[in-house]
Amino acid sequence: MSVLLSDSAECVKCSLEYWSNEDHSLCVPKVVEFLSFEETMGTLLTAISLFGASLTVIVSLVFFYFRHTPLVKASNSELSFLLLFSLTLCFLCSLTFIGRPSDWSCMLRHTAFGITFSMCMSCVLAKTVAVVIAFKAKLPKNTVPQCSLPLQRMSVFSCILVQVINQVILFSYSTIYIFQHFSSHSLVLAIISSLDPGELQYAYTMMFAIEEINNSSELLPGVTLGYSIFDSCPSIPLSVRASLKLMNGYKEGEDSCKEQSVQAVIGETTSTSTIGIASTMGPFHIPVISHSATCACLSNRKEYPSFFRTIPSDLYQSQALAKLVKHFGWTWVGAIRTNSDYGNGGMATFLKAAAKEGVCVEYSLPIYRTDPRKWFLNVVDTIKKSTSKVIVAFADGTDLDILIKELYIQNVTGLQWVGSEGWITYRYIASQVNYAVVQGAVGFAAHNAHMPELKEFLTNSRPSTQPGNQGLVELWETVFSCTLIPGADAQAQGLVTSCSGKESLRETQSRFTDVSDASLLNNIYKATYAVAHALHLLLTCQDAKGPFEDNMCADRNNIQPWQVLHYLTQVNFTTKIGETVSFDDMGDPAARYALVNWQTDESGYIHFETIGDYDASQAVGQQFKMKPGVKAIWAGQQTQVPRSICSDSCLPGSRRAFVKGKAICCFDCIPCADGEFSNSTSETAGFLAFSLAFIMFLLGKIPARTVLVSLRLSLLYSLNISMLSDAVKCDKCPPEYKSNTKRNNCDLKAIEFLTFRELMGVLLVTFSVFGACLSMTIALIFYHYRLTPIVRANNSELSFLLLFSLTLCFLCSLTFIGRPSDWSCMLRHTAFGITFVLCISCLLGKTIVVLMAFRATLPSSNVMKWFGPTQQRLSRWSEQGLALLQLLIVSSFYKSEQRVCRLMGEPEEPQLLKTGDIVLGGIFSFHSSWKNIEPTYMHRPLPLQCTRAFQFAQAMLFAIEEINNSTDLLPGIKLGYKMYDVCGSIARAVSVALSLINGNEDTASMSEKPCSGSVPAIIGVTSSSPCMAISTVIGPFHTPLVSHFATCACLSNKVRYPSFLRTIPSDYYQSRALAQMVKLFGWTWVGAIRSNDDYGNNGMAIFTETATQLGICLEYSLPFIRTDPPEQKQKIIETIRGSTSKVIIAFLNHMDMDELIEEFAHHNLTGYQWVGTEGWISDSQIAIAKGHYILDGSIGLAIRKAHVTGLREFMLDVKPLNSSGNKLFTEFWETTFGCIFNHIKQTGENQKECTGYEDLTGIKNSFSDMSLMPIFNNVYKGVYAVAHTLHNILGCGKMCSNTIASDQQAHLKKIRFKTKEGEEVYFNENGDPAAKYDIINWQPKKDGSVEFVTIGLYDASLPEDKQLNIDNLTLTWANASKQVKLFPLNNDQHRP
């Protein structure tokens, strides 16, 4: 291959292992594909080759052993040994085609094959020549035998020589081809540092909150809070020492100690100091509430059991920073962190989250205020040399201030800074000097709060010279440049003038009185109020209803910190500015941040503008909300978002080549090799290409094989791993395609073939015709002398057959010339295989005849009678039969490549059918079981045993009728349906699903036609197990299956079930909700029963895992299914009767539950508290079944109540079905009204006749029961989801197109719409809807019936501590109790 170099005058040939890129300016390596010995095909080929070689070697040894016998000598031993040797090499030659190819192996495989094959064929020809000469020897004065042996040797070695020369010529003028593979004042210590007004402000905020609480008549009335505030300086040893003083509760006096214990501690500001305090106080259960410690490590309840905070954990902040960086497209960033627990922990989480988001970090450097200047200079030097334009700073404001000033000195500006809450709103560093470096910085901060009363409190503060209250003295003296020391003492000490006492902080601008950024001040305010609310709950506890042992309340005269700790976990209040305060299990608040941006106003004042919000409790993709109308200012006062990437995106037609030693964000873009492509829009292009090919096939323009090739191409496109805008890798084009010049798509290859007009074609034709003529001439000579003894002795039949096969071998090469077609491709391989087999078989037959002839000369030998003319003909017929068998096998391989639908036996007939422009599939269980009985027409049809599925079918019909009558949805398109009855059979469910996707229900038996008419989507099935089976089968065909009642969490696995979606929540959420509900009621010792199917087993597995995490123990977990034998049911009853747990978790479907309560009623097992799933908790049929009192007081989760206008009326009006004479309608009608239609009424039957106009509204049965309306609504939503998908695919405006030219599954996952009742319908990435459940309680009524009372709601989209909401006041428990019963693990601890 030649390439044209841009600065060269000639093309330079690439080496053998390379080929040119698309611009022909560079040689890129080839990728090798080969057959390995570990593959099945490689193993089989090796085994066959070794067997064949061993067999020929054994035959050779036999010949060698009998070499001196007349038989071997007469068979021309030299040629026989040479033939066997060449056959051995032929078998071994195939081994060179296995394993990684190299230059030598590529040469060897072609050379060995050519030479050995030539040697084999030349031996055959030589043997033929020998036979001819033998006949000539009978003529008088014939001297031919004298040159017979030299002629044979010459013919063999001349053929071998010609082949060797041919191989040399080929290697001289061709190259070796390697296949491509697309494969956180009181102390007697000297305070050296100056006063921090911010920390003093925090202390006065706490004092402000306490003063508010003490003045409140609603919160802690009659109780006065005090405080003891220490200065930590900031130092970890001083923090721990202060915490020990507070914990011991002793105040130093002159003569004695007085006990003053604290109930809670608020602080500290930094994570590192807080860790020291929390570690010290944790074992003593004294609550520590921080307003600013964000280290994620503090959420560890084992290490810090008494820690709380009113600021979100860095875990959320770090993840939010990574998402923020990704949101703005910055994939190449630098990182600076404070060398402390706060910075190191936060940065570690950020790096992990950034890696998941595809963000690369060029450097990550620690800084600390005590570091030498040399280190800061090194950091500055690293920043100057870096190529990233964005710096993520997870640092404390004091530490970062030092670095920013060094950057300013060296004029390092123009970089985009991303900050954590530790400094992004730190007013102390917001100076003009620092702004020059970090202008336009963005970052997360706690939400600001408007606290005017606090500012008034701060400005009205006055200093005190009394011991123990001197916090404001230093600030006062600093601000007003005076001293509070009396005048004489001040003059004696040489100090400044004394303060007059008329000074006021109102007239000053200081950080102490600045509350413009009150986010952390608000956190202190909330922390103080949280303690107050906990104390309020403790002090207002009602006797005998307390949370402590024996339902006791805390001693109000001796409050213990651990009691306050308990109530802190229960606080949930709203501040006066409307902010909700609560703590989760880890002591953390809800993670919400404000996205702030450093901006300046006209006066040059730096303010922190809020440009957006981040809420971690929201769904992915909805966590960021930018403020409308607020513009951000970026680095360099730019209004456009800056770019920070290591490498530009690769364009289509190229791929990423990662540089060794560098991050994955740094790469080179290398053009795709020949035969490869890359395209970021490959998924859309692939399916458009396949759709176009499918249309052409329907029009008869292309064969079925081309459609399959297009399908393979579209799958390659859709599986492209690039989810970014650039191309990540190059994919291999299918064999029938080649890459275009831009390497961004695959085009059909131009067909290259050898023509009769080319020199090589002419030569091949000449040699073929010459060889065929020569063979035919010899055959004619043999025919002319067929009656002579020499021809007859040479086995004329085998000779003629051998010459005929040689003629065909020569002519076979002609099929490789000219434009190929399907028949010529089949013919060339078939002809070669058959003629070669025929030739070799004749040769072997001749050899056997000679061997037998010599055996016949032995005394008393009767071999010839077993090898006479008849037997020889029989062997030839068997050879021809084997050749015919090979022909059939080869033909079958080609037939199998064509996609043909074959229908065997009786076709599947839908139970409900209506034609339309687009037909939807439906799979329901109209009957509970399938009767395989031959129709005898001697009895009425079996009664309808299951009417629920009939209701589901009616819901689907109702939705389709609504859509067909709509002018907004699918205008001009009429939907039809095909609904099948699977009768609870998984096998039948799979069968009808295949019928729907094949679209060949009406095909006659044994007929063949291309698959067409498949449905775009299937609605159903009712249970999980059939859905799993169907999804597994139809998944590869990308036909969506939308279920209304299959809840198994396993179906969310998109790898196994790629085309499955559902309108009912997954059991994953239900199982977790059940465990949370059990934990909420304090049940730690429970039993469990589950349906022994995918629904029950998978659901119980998730429940068990979650229960273990929550500290709940399972005494037993029993599988049950309605078909279990009586002994199994008895075993379950005995297990439950012998258990000590009184709560039973029932993960059962309604049919299993119905069977189970009958057994409980029979054995009178009552008094158990049942917790149920949506499978049975709201089932009205179970509520009226015999023994339903067993379940009184049950509590569980149910699908949310729903109402679909007009659906009930439609269901009760099934008469329109009768117009089509539907069998299902007839069966349903006769069963419901106990009548019989006249056309099937038998003589002598005394039963009333059906009219078809009976009134269903007066009937009370399972069909008229609308308690399952939520499930009917799921069917309704599923049909509408498919309709909306088709609407989008067909590009419907006023009218729709006629062709579905896209992947319904991909579009179905993207739909989002509202039903006419206002319910929003959408699917997540796993094909699941939003998980919301009603919490249902079985409450018995006076008349003995049961009422399903909704007592709460579970919403999985909310934060975990807010997902479960239950009204305990309306609950009824087992045995009609109105108070929850505790069932702990220790049986002695049971309380009423």
Automatic annotation (TrEMBL):
Membrane topology listed for this record: Multi-pass membrane protein
Record carries keyword Transmembrane helix: yes
Entry keyword annotation includes tRNA processing: no
Subcellular location: Cell membrane
InterPro entries assigned: ANF_lig-bd_rcpt (IPR001828), GPCR_3 (IPR000337), GPCR_3_9-Cys_dom (IPR011500), GPCR_3_9-Cys_sf (IPR038550), GPCR_3_C (IPR017978), GPCR_3_Ca_sens_rcpt-rel (IPR000068), Peripla_BP_I (IPR028082)
GO cellular component: a single term: plasma membrane
Transmembrane segments: 44-66, 78-99, 111-135, 156-179, 685-704, 759-786, 798-818, 830-854
Sorted UniProt keywords: Cell membrane, G-protein coupled receptor, Glycoprotein, Membrane, Receptor, Signal, Transducer, Transmembrane, Transmembrane helix
GO molecular function, one term: G protein-coupled receptor activity
G-protein coupled receptors family 3 profile domain segment(s): 41-165, 760-894
Protein name: Extracellular calcium-sensing receptor
